[in-house]
Amino acid sequence: MVLLDEVMHRPLDPGYAEAAARRAAGTEPRRTLLGQAVVVLIAAALGVVTATAAADLRAPAPEVLTARALLEEEIAQRQAGADQLADQLQALDVEIEDLQSAALAETFPNLLATTRRDAAVAGTIAVTGPGIELVVADAVTVPGADPERGSRVQDYDLQIVVNALWSAGAEAITVNGTRLTTTSAIRSAGDAILVDLIGLASPYTIEAVGDPAALTVGFARSVGQQQLTVLGSRYGISSSMREVEQIDARAGRATDLFYAEAVGAPVAGGQTVGSLSTGLGTATTGRPVRQAPKEDHR
Questions:
Q1: Distance between CA 203 and CA 199 in Å, rounded?
Q2: Residue 136: in which H helix or E strand, if any?
Q3: Which one, of 136, 188, 138, lies nearest residue 162 by Cα?
Q4: 3-class secondary structure for 187-255?
Q5: Would you say the C-alpha torsion 52, 58, 59, 60 has a positive or negative sign?
Q6: What are the mean pLDDT values of the chain's consecutive 10-residue runs (298 residues total)?
Q7: Contact 239, 226 (CB under 8 A)
Q8: CA-CA distance, 227 to 183, in Å (whole number)?
Q9: What is the distance between the alpha carbons of residues 198 and 15, in angstroms, rounded to a whole number?
Q10: What are the φ/ψ torsions at residue 100 (nearest 5 degrees)?
Q11: DSSP tally for the chain: helices H, then strands E
């Protein structure tokens, strides 16, 4: 009850009440210029100390910088090693292809011509020729700001563009140097876009081998151009196209053949095998896939 009475009738502390009474009576002691200067100096000193401490806390420790530099150097070395191995693998594939072609040219020239034509269509041999280059890049964002998902190129954007190029008459297509084959897939993993499990980053350079004039006209009339127009006007995603006199599309990885049966070979139950089987599943986005424009749900 005493506490409730104090709260209800005397809520102000006696010290505060006394100071308020002195201020009302005009007897409150005033601070001198020296006292005010001391207060200002103390406040400035505290501000400097606080700012210095905050800067020291935000600055990374030398050990962290050293470890980061070592990791960056190791990543660069590993990437260089991987690129070198990829070049060696490409050279070995070319050597194997030359040996196979030389062996077939002597005995089965017609089969060699058919095999090379099919390999070019499948994307398993390197091709060179004129074509067009299409560059699609994410929208420019303010440094330090978190980019919105709508301002980034998505996997289905590239799928629409690539399918439109196939339909326009492209004979070979690469995305950031990765050759698309009959089993290539363009997918997303989080914010990254994967082409045959290879992570790519913006800008995305799409090169299509074929007649430049026909490709330009065919793509301009396709849903791919419509998609790029919508992305540019609504999300600020940039795109550009130009004709290229020579595009070197390196060979893509061929599907591994695990087993095969001759056409018409008998199997269990008296049935026959009607075609070759590789024992592998299929992926997406290899050859032209016509599709209706999909609604954008960014």
A1: 12
A2: strand 127-137
A3: 136
A4: EEECCEEEECCEEECCCEEEEEECCHHHHHHHHHCCHHHHHHHHHHHHHCCEEEEEEEEEEEECCCCCC
A5: positive
A6: 72 74 72 78 89 79 81 89 84 81 81 81 87 93 58 92 95 92 88 87 93 95 94 92 92 75 61 41 38 46
A7: no
A8: 24
A9: 73
A10: -65, -40
A11: 8, 8
Q: Helix (H, G, I), strand (E, B), or coil: what is residue 55? A: helix
Environment class of residue 144 by beta-carbon count within 10 Å: exposed (0-12), middle (13-18) or buried (19+)?
exposed
Provide the residue type at 281 as one letter. Answer: G
Position 200: which residue type?
Answer: L
Specify the amino acid at residue 160: I
Taking the alpha carbons at both ends of the chain, their separation in whole angstroms is 64
d(C-alpha 30, C-alpha 35), whole Å: 10
The amino acid occupying position 147 is P
Q: Residue 29 is encoded by which pair of tokens?
A: 């002691």
Task: Please state, in angstroms and rounded to a whole number, the distance separating the CA atoms of residues 243 and 185.
Answer: 26
Query: In whole angstroms, what is the distance from residue 279 CA to residue 262 CA?
Result: 14
163/290 Cα distance (integer angstroms): 7
What are the strands of the beta sheet with 192-195, ordered from one edge? 186-189, 192-195, 198-200
Give the alpha-carbon dihedral of 28, 29, 34, 35, to 10 degrees: -70
In 10 A of CB 155, how many CB atoms?
18
0.90 exceeded by pTM: no
CB 278 within 8 A of CB 257: yes
